[in-house]
Amino acid sequence: MMMECSEAAYASYSVSRAPHGAEPDRTASFCLKGLRLIAILAGMLVTGTAQADPLSGTALVTSLRQGGYVLLMRHASSPATPPTAGIAEFGNTKLERQLDEIGRSSAQAMGRAIKTLSIPVGEVWSSPTYRALETVHLAGLPNPTTAVELGDGGQSMQAISKGQAAWLQAKVAERPRAGTNTIIVTQYPNIQEAIGQNASGLTEGDALIVRPGDAGADEIVGRVKIEEWPTLASQR
Predict the structure, then answer these.
(1) pLDDT in the model for residue 213
(2) Which of 59, 96, 131, 210 is least surrounded by CB atoms within 10 angstroms?
(3) pLDDT tens digits for 142-170?
């Protein structure tokens, strides 16, 4: 069957070059559609995470209150270059990238909103980078577990290893403790490598809301910008 479709696909190319008015190859057209569908499904299987109908507003908050979701979050706003010793924060002894004023205030506001909305938080996982841990601490989240797999190896915004991506995919697929949500804070390259195109456009502080499913059938059901949490809290 695959050989027949391959031949038909080639035939469709020949038909496209045929004189105007020539009868199209119906088998080729059918096979090309089938091959495109297979490619789409294969892309979903590679990342292991599909895009579901989005939740937002009250519906999203109601679902999060019930627990069972993983919030895969990019750290809050941070300048692209590390600080000098003169302006580094007290705890930033390695002079890593740190949050700017917008990042600090938005992380604090997000944490207050999550508490106001009574969203239960269970496990918190964080990259060991200073900016990720600062996001967690300023948000007032439970003490995080750090994992080197969530880190950047000291190479900010550089591609991560396949092993790190596989680790994050597995972590996102883990069901949270009953009645709680898991929060994972890391960097964009880690999320992009693990989630693929579903991470497109994810800016600093954004969180993907993932619903782990059976046999790796995880679904992204929402996306929340860090500045949207206070708005959700005001609508409760």
Answers:
(1) 87
(2) 59
(3) 999 999 999 998 777 777 899 999 999 99
